[in-house]
Design goal:
The complex is a heterodimer. In chain A, about 75% of the residues lie in helices and about 0% in strands. Chain A is an all-alpha fold. Chain A has one domain: Arp2/3 complex 21 kDa subunit ARPC3 (Orthogonal Bundle). Chain A starts with a helix and ends in an 8-residue tail after the last helix. Chain B folds into two domains: about 30 residues; about 80 residues, Sandwich (mini-chromosome maintenance (MCM) complex, domain 2), CATH 2.60.320. By secondary structure, chain B is α+β, with helices and mostly antiparallel strands. Chain B starts with 10 loop residues before the first helix and ends in a 16-residue tail after the last strand. The chains are: A mainly alpha, B alpha+beta. The interface between A and B is large, with 48 and 44 residues.
Chain lengths: ~170, ~140
């Protein structure tokens, strides 16, 4: 994969943005409203959706891997790496597949990604705990992913509309 | 930009939403269906750490609420068992999801503490006393 300096810079900025969004997300006490382990808005997924369409699957994957690895290193919790990688990679694979279906909008792709992210994280929880107890949370998490996926799709869409007026996205 | 992107919600997106709801419904039926069929029987709380069962409490045998403490991976959870259900009273884990889960009362429900890798799951009793401490006399 050949990456220009401009693309590399954009990848670095998007990685930093994804890390910042992950950090901000941890300050939102969503778990108090819906007490489910690992429940999040998935704000960092906005960057993944944006990168997938703007830069392509290869670079979106690089940003995801950098975000997951750096996030776990900064948090000092390597156990978190398994969760973010399994969730992130599941979401990425599903979104790559769905983005090839031209009839779907950014909302459908984002919802599918959010649902796959939850499936990946529950799978990581099952592996970590060594029992199937976390599976009981999955139906509710999938229901919530419709909301979180729509939210991230909406924000990523707004980002695309804002970027239309700039020349940043031109090769 | 690598590929064109549709920015308006369309009816095809509803198919993705329906597929997710279908999956959620199927999982609910598969996982919680067993719970409903087991309703009416007694409950046993099974405590596991790192995938291994470390304690088992027959809730029907309890007269009053009882607190037990479990420690794993440097985190300590105080779990309250009562005839009505189970809850995590206190935990020094960073997320506190286990405490916020509240009281679980039905078979199939669970409380998970991911940082401590401890889970408490309610299972329907199969009619056998779970705790050996409940026996007065053992024959044979």
């Amino acid at each position: 994969m050949k990456i220009t300096t401009k693309q590399l810079t954009l990848c670095a900025v998007l990685t930093a943005l994804a890390l910042a969004l992950s950090y901000v997300e941890n300050m939102i006490p969503l778990g108090l409203l819906i007490p489910l382990p690992g429940i999040k808005l998935g704000l960092a997924n906005i960057v993944t959706v944006f990168a997938l369409y703007a830069l392509g699957p290869g670079q979106a994957l690089l940003i995801l891997l950098a975000r997951c690895t750096l996030g776990a290193v900064f948090a000092g919790n390597l156990n978190a790496l398994l969760f973010s990688l399994m969730g992130g990679l599941s979401a990425m694979l599903v979104m790559i597949a769905l983005s090839r279906l031209k009839r779907l909008s950014i909302y459908g792709v984002s919802m599918g990604g959010a649902a796959a992210h939850n499936c990946g994280q529950v799978a990581a929880a099952v592996l970590t705990l060594g029992n199937l107890a976390p599976l009981g949370y999955l139906p509710l998490l999938l229901g919530i992913s419709l909301f979180t996926g729509t939210l991230t799709g909406l924000i990523a869409g707004l980002l695309f509309r804002a970027m239309e007026h700039t020349n940043l996205m031109k090769a | 930009m690598k590929s064109s992107v549709k920015l308006h919600f369309c009816r095809w997106d509803l198919i993705v939403a329906a597929a997710i709801l279908l999956l959620a419904g199927g999982l609910t039926f598969g996982y919680w269906g067993q719970t409903v069929s087991a309703a009416g029987s007694g409950l046993t709380a099974v405590v596991s750490a790192n995938g291994e069962e470390i304690d088992r409490v027959d809730l029907a045998s309890l007269k009053t609420a009882e607190e037990r403490t479990y420690t794993d991976l440097g985190y300590t959870l105080t779990v309250e068992f009562s005839p009505d259900g189970v809850c995590v009273e206190t935990s020094d884990c960073p997320t506190q999801d286990c405490v916020h889960t509240g009281t679980i009362t039905r078979a199939g429900q669970s409380i998970v503490c991911l940082p401590a890798r401890i889970s408490v799951q309610l299972k329907a009793d199969v009619g056998q006393a779970a705790s050996s401490g409940d026996f007065d006399v053992m024959i044979g």
